[in-house]
Amino acid sequence: MSATINARFWIWHNDGWVKLTLRPGQVFTVVDGGPTDEGYSYTAQVYTHEGDHILRETSTRAADCDGPHEYYADCTAALDALQEYLCDDGTRVPSWERVRASQRDRFAEDAGY
Fold it and tell me: Are 7 and 21 in contact (CB under 8 A)?
């Protein structure tokens, strides 16, 4: 039954809450970022409705005074957990569970850390 249910949930984008509605199998990508006072930072989030849960893939590439670095994470939220977490402003958002994550700091790697 859950394979035919649309998923409706809030995400933070462009300094405010945006409500997404995804049909089963639908993929939606959100990209934020640009220049910063020390370099740049770009983040892409890909949301996929996988039938009984939402998969959120987050990828960030950035550079600052400490050099380039990257971050990646996969998180999921069951359809019945899309309004489980209550934010300070009263907005209910998904309770994301991290599946895997990685990060890379190229200057630290070059220095042997």
Answer: yes
pTM: 0.86
What are the pLDDT digits (tens) for 60-86?
A: 999 988 889 899 999 999 999 999 999
Which residues partner with 104 through β-bridges?
70
Q: Which residues pair with 47 in a beta bridge?
A: 28, 56
Based on its alpha-carbon atoms, the radius of gyration of the chain, rounded to whole angstroms, reads 16
Q: How far is CA 27 from CA 7, 76, 95, 101, in A?
A: 12, 14, 19, 20
**Residue in the block written with tokens 């990257």:** 70
